[in-house]
Specification:
Number of domains: 2
Distance between the termini: 49 Å
CATH class of the largest domain: Alpha Beta
CATH architecture of the largest domain: 3-Layer(aba) Sandwich
Helix content: 40-55%
Number of strands: 11
Shape: globular
Bound molecules: guanine
């Protein structure tokens, strides 16, 4: 059996068309959604992500502003910039690209962003709301993953979800969102002893470790849904996921590709959150 591919690229295209109409509607009411992106330093991967975010904003008519600050930026300078953006009426979303240089506390920066403009969904108050099932900005990658699963009408309720990876950005929140959908959730991480035994019991397997080809088909149950969050360069410089795609697709029922899977949905949900934030102003 060869798995059905869940194309994030196609789903993102559809959702971005819907968002374009919503942006037009908002502009008709005198509000242009605005996103401010702050990039510190010159990490090539971060630069590339930020460029994609800017380009995607432009495509759907969202105003975006990029603040490129040097690697030597102090925490105080960054907090001052965030404070100004918190107060800026034309800005509805603020995103500080992570990771940050060592001299800046990630926690302090995330907490400084107005939770009402936290379109990344990383602020402790928004994470707390997500945990107790209240409406709020949801972290973009986990939000995109849930949308991808739902787009294929795959049942989540009662299913065993295994999440490999426990980052604050992906692993932890994706497990929580799927728990909110009534799944039974197991987290695996670097200290997990019997990883393969765990992953082989998953109906829905989410892999977010950031290591090329971390799991092969022998770690996947026949008919499982496989969501691959990894974006890694292999020895030939090609983008590959955390899962060995060609082998896994012979075992899985559904699978997300890399590239063209989770990645495009992450940016789409960022656009969604920014538009939602602007809509709150109009209401
Ligand atoms: N770095 C890697 N992923 C993300 C993300 O989703 N948001 C931000 N702000 N930084 C990131």
């Amino acid at each position: 059996m060869s798995a059905t591919v869940i194309s994030g690229k196609e789903l993102a295209k559809k959702k971005r068309e819907e968002l374009t109409h919503e942006v037009e509607g908002l502009k008709g009411k005198g509000v242009t959604p605005g996103l401010a992106v702050i990039l510190i330093g010159e990490d090539p991967a971060s630069q590339s992500y930020v460029r994609s975010k800017q380009k995607s904003c432009k495509e759907i008519g969202v105003h975006s502003e990029l603040y490129e600050l040097p690697e030597s930026t102090t925490q105080e300078e960054l907090l001052e910039r965030i404070d100004a953006l918190n107060k800026a009426e034309h800005i509805h979303g603020i995103l500080v690209q992570l990771p940050l240089p060592d001299q800046i506390s990630e926690d302090a920066v995330i907490e400084a962003i107005d939770p009402n403009k936290d379109v990344d969904g990383f602020h402790p108050s928004n994470i707390g709301k997500m945990m107790i099932g209240q409406e709020t900005f949801l972290p973009c990658t986990p939000f995109g993953i849930v949308e991808m699963i739902k787009s294929k009408e795959i049942e989540i309720e009662g299913k065993h979800v295994v999440v490999v990876g426990r980052s604050n950005i992906v692993g932890k929140p994706v497990g929580q969102l799927l728990l909110n959908e009534n799944a039974t959730v197991t987290y695996c991480h670097s200290r997990t002893k019997n990883m393969k035994e765990m992953t082989r019991s998953a109906d829905i397997l989410v892999v977010a470790v950031g290591r090329a080809h971390f799991l092969d088909a022998d770690a996947i149950k026949e008919g499982a849904v496989v969501i691959d969050v990894g974006v890694n360069r292999n020895d030939e410089g090609k983008l590959v996921g955390d899962v060995v795609y060609d082998n896994a697709k012979e075992v899985a029922s559904y699978i997300t590709p890399v590239p063209g899977g989770v990645g495009p949905m992450t940016i789409t949900m960022l656009l969604h959150n920014t538009v939602e934030s602007a809509k709150r102003i109009v209401k």
